[in-house]
Amino acid sequence: MERCLQRNAPWNIAVRTGSLNAMTSTNRPAAESGTCGGVCESQRGAATTAPRGALQRPAAMTRNLDVSGLVDSDGGLLDRAIFTDEELYRQEMRRIFAPSWLFLAHTDQFHKPGDFFTTYMGEDPVIVTLDKNRKIRAYLNSCRHRGARVCRADFGATRNFTCTYHGWAYDLEGKLISVPKQDGYPESFDVKDWGLVEVPHIETYHGLIFGTWNPQPVTLRESLGDMAWYMDAMLDHDPDGTVVVGGVHKWVLDGNWKLTAEQFATDWYHVNMSHASALMVLSPTGKGPKDEIIHRTGRQYVDPNGHGAGFPVHPRNRFDSQTVHEWMDYTALRERLGQARVEGPMTTGHATVFPNFSYLPVNGSIRIWHPKGPDKMEVWAWTIVDKSMPDEVREAQRLYNLRTFGPSGIFEQDDGENWSEVQAISRGFITNGVALNYQMGIGSEREDGRHPGKTSELYSDAAGRAFYARWRELMNTPAWHEEKR
Ligand code: FES
Ligand SMILES: [Fe+2]
User: Can you tell me the distance from the alpha carbon of 346 to that of 317, in angstroms, rounded to the nearest whole number?
Assistant: First the structure.
C-alpha cells in the first residue's frame, strides 16, 4: 500500500534526516512547475493593478511543491503531511484559495447601501458590502497605507470605511476619499491609485454570495456543476428563497480545515459510532434509533470539482425539529423539487462545496471552515430558513440547530473532538509518515438513474477521494497570479 504514496524528493531527504524543518526548507523551487518559472515576479500577490513600483519578490519566497505523491486517490491513500506542513499550507493559500470560488456571506445580511460584513477568503480579510447602487462588492480589508484593517467590526452599516490608524478613508466603492495631510505627499501621489483592493468577481447562488480573486474564473454556476441540484434541496424550497436567523456563530478548532470540509463531503461512516450518545438522546425510546435507521441506505454524490454530499434515502431519515417537520408541505416540495430530492438530499444529509463551504440541509446550518494555519481553523456557522417560515417555526429551527450543531451542540462536540484528536497526534514524526485509509467504496461510483452526476454508497469515501483529487490537481497547477500577462 505504501508504495502508492510517494513524497517528493525533498520530503524523502528530510524524512531520512528526520528533520521536519529541513524537510520544509529544502523544497524544490517553483521554477520546475510554473508556466513562467512558477511565479511572475511582477504579478505575485497583486490582485489588482495596484502600483508596485520597483518592488519585486524573489522567486524563492513562493516555491511550490509537487504534491502528486501525497494523494493517491485511485488507491485511497493519503499522506498526513497535507494536514501539518506549513509550506504546503502556504501553497494552499496561493493555489487553492486564491483561484477558487469562496463563500462570503448570505444576501439577507445586506439590505441597504453601506451594510457590511467582514470575513475571510483563505486568510485574507475581506469586507463584503452593498455600494451606493446596491451592488454587492467585496474588498480586501487592509488599508493601502500601512495595511491595518479599515473595518474592524464584524458587521454593521457605514457610509465609508475609515482606517483608525492614520485616518485614510474609503467610500463604499472602495475609492480613497480622504488622506489627512495629503499635501505632504509627492505630486505623483494620486488617490486613484490607492483605493481598496477589490475582489474582482462576486456571484450569488440562491442567496449564497461567493467571491473569487481569479480575474478570469469559470462562472460560479459552472464550478458548482451538478452540485447545484443537491444544494437546491436546501436552498430552493420556496420561491422567495432563504433568510438568516440570528447571527453568525464563530468558534476555534484545533484541526486542519480539510478534515472538516472532507468529512462534510463524504463521511456518514462516523455517525453511528461517534454520535451514538446523541442518537440515543434523540430517539423517542431513549434506547437509540431503530435498526432500519442505523443501517441506512443512501447515496453519496461525488463531484469532479471536489464537492460532495451524502444523504440517506429512507422515509424515516429526518432527525429534525418536530415543529419544522410538521410545518413543511412535503406535497408542494415534491412538486417543486421532485421525489428524489425530497427523499434524498433534503433529508438528514451533509455536504461540502469545495474547498471550504459546508452545510446540513435539515438543520439549515451553513458554515465555512476558515483556515488559520495548518493545525487550526475558525468555524463560522449561520442558520438559514425558508423565507416563508413563520416566526415560531424559525425559532424552533434555530433552537434545534443550536442543540445539535451549534458550537456546543450534541453532534458538533462529537465531531470537534474527532478532528482535534486526528490533528493533535499528526505531528509525531513516525505518525506523520503513516498513510491514512480512504478505500471504502472504491470503484462504486456510478450513475444511479435517480440523482445527477455520479453517486456512491452512503457509507463510502468516494467523495473524499474526489475532494483530495481536486486538491492535488489545484496544488499542482499554477494559479492565475503565476501566469504571464
Ligand atoms: S494604516 Fe490606514 S491610514 Fe495608515
Ligand atoms: Fe458528525
Answer: 10
Residue 311 CA to residue 368 CA, distance in Å, equals 20
Q: What spatial distance separates the first Cα and last Cα of the chain, rounded to whole Å?
A: 43
Sign of the four-CA dihedral 133, 139, 143, 145? negative
Predicted confidence at residue 2, as pLDDT, reads 41
- In the reported structure, the alpha carbon of residue 340 is separated from the centroid of ligand 2 by a whole-number distance in angstroms of 24
Confidence of residue 336 (pLDDT cuts 50, 70, 90): very high
Which of the 8 DSSP states describes residue 63? Answer: -
What nine digits make up the cell of 32? Answer: 520546475
Three-class secondary structure of residue 367 per DSSP: strand
> Shortest CA distance to 205 belongs to which of 215, 220, 190?
220
Residue 283: per-residue pLDDT: 75
**Largest Cα span, the chain:** 78
> Of 484 and 383, which is predicted with more confidence?
383
Residue 168 CA, closest ligand 1 atom number: 3
- ∠ CA 191-195-201 to the nearest 5 degrees? 150
- Asked whether residue 154 carries a pLDDT value surpassing 90, the answer given is yes
Distance of alpha carbon 344 from alpha carbon 330, whole angstroms: 13
Place of cell 510517494: 6
Q: Which residues line ligand 1 (CB under 6 A)?
A: 143, 145-146, 148, 163, 165-168
Cell (9 digits) for 121: 477568503
Q: Of the ligands numbered here, which is closest to the C-alpha atom of 143? A: 1
What is the pLDDT averaged over residues 260-286? 88
Task: Calculate the alpha carbon distances from 158 to 200, 227, 396 in Å.
Answer: 22, 36, 33
Centre of ligand 1 from the C-alpha of residue 45, in Å? 20
- CA distances for 6 relative to 25, 434, 477, angstroms: 18, 12, 18
Residue written as grid cell 452599516? 157
Instruction: Answer yes or no: are the C-beta atoms of 484 and 35 closer than 8 Å.
Output: yes
Q: Is the dihedral of CA 273, 278, 280, 282 positive or negative?
A: negative
Q: Which one of the ligands is nearest to 151 CA? A: 1
Q: Kindly state the average pLDDT of the residues 241-256.
A: 97
* Cα 171 to Cα 140, 162, 176, 353, distances in angstroms: 13, 9, 7, 32
* Alpha-carbon span 46 to 63, nearest angstrom: 17
Distance in angstroms (rounded) separating the CA atoms of residues 242 and 383 = 10
Pocket test for ligand 1, best of 141, 142, 146, 160 (most atoms within 8 A of CB): 146
Domains and CATH numbers, the chain: 102-204 (2.102.10.10), 245-475 (3.90.380.10)
**Would you say the pTM of this structure is higher than 0.85?**
yes
When the pLDDT of each residue in the chain is averaged and rounded to a whole number, the result is: 88
Rounded Cα gap, residues 482 and 35, in angstroms: 7
3-class SS of residue 217? coil
